[in-house]
Design a protein that fits this description.
Elements lengths: L2 H32 L1 H4 L6 H14 L1 H22 L2 H7 L4 H42 L19 E8 L5 E9 L8 E12 L5 E15 L9 E15 L22 H29 L31 H64 L5 H27 L4 H5 L1 H18 L7 H16 L8
Antiparallel strand pairs: 1-2, 2-3, 3-4, 4-5
Helix pairs in contact: 1-4, 1-6, 3-6, 4-6, 4-8, 4-9, 6-8, 7-8, 8-9, 8-11, 9-11
Length: about 475
C-alpha cells in the first residue's frame, strides 16, 4: 500500500466513525421521540430501557451507514480540496479515480459488512427489540394515585383521595369502591386518613386506614327481596391491593419469530417458497370450482372449439320462452350469488398470502439494497467533496442531508410500491440506488474535469453574460 493510499484512508476513517455514531444517535432519538408516550410513566427499570436502546441501535445500523459514508466522504475530499492537497495530487499526474480507489475498496468492505450484519445480527436484534417494545407498550402505567381523581387501574377497585401529603404516602379523605368481591353487592370504604405502604417486592400495596366506615350490601341486585345493608366502623383498618397487573412481564418471543423482519436470507427463501406453494393452491381451487359449475369454461378445453360460435340472435329473449324467463333469470341470479359467496373467502385468503409473499420479498431485497447504498453514497460523496472544496461539518452536512433525503424518499416510495405490487419487488427496492447512480456518474465526470458546478463566481459570470446579451435587444430611446 502506497503512502498516498494510507493518507486518504487515515483521513477518511476519523470522520466516518464520528459521523456514524452521530447519525446513529439521531436515529435513536427519533425512535425514542416516536415512542415516548409508551415509555414514560411505566416504571420501567433502567436495564429494560438500556436493552431496548441497544437492540434498536442494532436495527438502525444499516440505515446509518449510508449517511455516514456520504457525509464522511464529502468531508474528506472537501478538506483535501480546501487545503489544496487535492490540487497538488492532481498536478502530480494522479487522477481522481486513482485517488478514490482505496476508499472505494473501504466502501465495498463496509457494504459487505453491512450485508452480513443485516443478515445475521439484525434479525435477532429485531426479534428482541420488537418483542420488548410490544411488552412495554402493552404494560400498564406505574401505580400513581392523584388527589381528587378517581383511580381505576387496579382491577376491581375505584379509589379516590381528596389530598396527598408531600411524603407521597399520607392520604386524607379516602374513598374505596370494591367491585371485586363476590355476592353481587358493592363494598365501600370511607376513611379520614391513611398511609400507603408498598411491599419490598412491589407486589402488594397496603392502605392502612384510620377512623372510617365500611359499607357492604349483601344479596343480588334486581330482586324484589329487600337487601341487607351492613355498616361497620373502625379505628384502624388495613386493605391490601394486588399489584401483579402492573408488573412488567415478557411474552414468549416465539410469537414474533415468524415475522419477515426476524428472518435471514436462507429463512426468507424457505418462507417464500412455502408461501408460493400455498398461494398456487388457491388458484387450483378456484379453477376447479369454476370449471365444474360453469359451462363457458369448456371452450378452453382442447377438445372443444378454440372460440365460441357466434350467436345468430340479437337478444337472449328470442331463444327463451316467455313463460320460463322469470325462472331462468332467478336461477342465474342465484347461481351468481352462490359463486360470489364461494369465491370471496378464497380471494381474501389469496390476497393475504400474496401480500405476505411480497413482504418477504421486500425484506429479502432490503438486505442487499441498504448494503449497496454505501457504495452509491461514496460514489456521490467523493466527487461532490472534491467539487465543493469545503471541509468541516457545515457545507458537507447540507449536501449530505439533501442527497440522503432524496435517497430516503425514493426508498420509501419504491418500498411502498413493491409492497402493494405496483412494481416488481427488485425494481421497487432498488429504485433509490438506480436514481442516484446517474447522479453519481455525472458528479464523477464533473469532478474529473475540474467543474465549477458549485462555484459562485462561475454562476455570476454566466449571469453577467446573459445580462449583456439581453441588453443588446433593449430598445433604444426615441428622440
Amino acid at each position: 500500500m502506497k503512502k498516498l493510499d494510507k493518507l486518504i484512508i487515515k483521513t477518511f476513517l476519523g470522520p466516518f466513525i464520528a459521523t456514524f455514531f452521530v447519525t446513529l444517535f439521531v436515529l435513536i432519538m427519533q425512535f425514542l421521540w416516536k415512542y415516548i408516550d409508551d415509555l414514560v410513566g411505566k416504571g420501567l427499570d433502567t436495564t429494560v430501557i438500556i436493552q431496548l436502546i441497544a437492540y434498536t441501535s442494532a436495527t438502525l445500523v444499516t440505515l446509518a451507514l449510508p449517511l455516514a459514508v456520504l457525509l464522511s466522504s464529502i468531508m474528506t475530499f472537501g478538506n483535501l480540496g480546501e487545503s489544496f492537497e487535492l490540487v497538488a495530487i492532481k498536478s502530480s499526474g494522479i487522477s481522481l479515480l486513482r485517488f478514490m480507489r482505496p476508499l472505494l475498496f473501504i466502501a465495498i468492505i463496509i457494504s459487505v459488512l453491512a450485508f452480513l450484519f443485516a443478515n445475521y445480527v439484525i434479525p435477532v436484534a429485531n426479534l428482541q427489540a420488537k418483542s420488548l417494545l410490544w411488552d412495554i407498550t402493552n404494560a400498564k402505567p406505574a401505580f400513581n394515585i392523584k388527589a381528587g381523581v378517581f383511580y381505576k387501574d387496579i382491577p376491581g377497585y375505584t379509589i379516590k383521595v381528596a389530598q396527598k401529603d408531600k411524603d407521597n404516602q399520607t392520604i386524607h379523605q379516602v374513598m374505596i369502591f370494591d367491585h371485586a368481591s363476590g355476592g353481587g353487592g358493592d363494598k365501600v370504604i370511607l376513611a379520614e386518613k391513611g398511609q400507603m405502604v408498598l411491599t419490598a417486592n412491589k407486589r402488594y400495596l397496603y392502605f392502612i386506614l384510620e377512623n372510617g366506615w365500611r359499607y357492604e350490601e349483601r344479596g343480588n341486585r334486581g330482586f324484589s327481596v329487600p337487601q341487607d345493608m351492613i355498616r361497620l366502623g373502625f379505628k384502624k383498618y388495613s386493605k391490601a391491593f394486588d399489584l401483579s397487573a402492573f408488573a412488567f412481564n415478557r411474552l414468549n418471543m416465539d410469537l414474533f419469530a415468524s415475522n419477515q423482519q426476524m428472518l435471514n436470507i436462507r429463512q426468507l427463501d424457505y418462507a417464500i417458497d412455502s408461501l408460493k406453494k400455498v398461494e398456487s393452491g388457491y388458484g387450483k381451487t378456484v379453477h376447479a370450482y369454476v370449471s365444474s359449475r360453469y359451462t363457458f369454461s369448456k371452450w378452453k378445453d382442447s377438445a372443444w372449439l378454440a372460440q365460441a360460435p357466434p350467436l345468430k340472435v340479437k337478444n337472449y329473449e328470442e331463444v327463451i320462452p316467455e313463460d320460463q324467463r322469470r325462472n331462468i333469470l332467478e336461477r342465474a341470479e342465484q347461481t351468481g350469488r352462490e359463486a360470489l359467496s364461494s369465491l370471496e373467502t378464497p380471494a381474501k385468503d389469496y390476497e393475504s398470502k400474496h401480500g405476505a409473499v411480497l413482504m418477504h420479498k421486500v425484506e429479502w431485497q432490503r438486505k442487499f439494497t441498504l448494503a449497496a447504498a454505501c457504495i452509491v453514497m461514496f460514489l456521490i460523496g467523493a466527487p461532490l467533496g472534491s467539487i465543493i472544496r469545503k471541509g468541516g461539518l457545515g457545507t458537507p452536512l447540507v449536501f449530505a442531508v439533501i442527497f440522503f433525503v432524496i435517497f430516503n424518499v425514493f426508498f420509501m416510495v419504491g418500498e411502498k410500491m413493491a409492497r402493494s405490487g405496483v412494481m416488481e419487488t427488485w425494481s421497487g427496492m432498488w429504485l433509490s440506488n438506480m436514481v442516484l447512480l446517474p447522479i453519481a456518474a455525472f458528479l464523477i465526470y464533473k469532478a474529473m474535469n475540474d467543474s465549477q458546478l458549485f462555484n459562485k463566481e462561475f454562476y455570476f459570470r454566466i449571469y453577467q453574460k446573459i445580462k449583456k446579451f439581453l441588453q443588446r435587444f433593449k430598445k433604444q430611446p426615441t428622440t
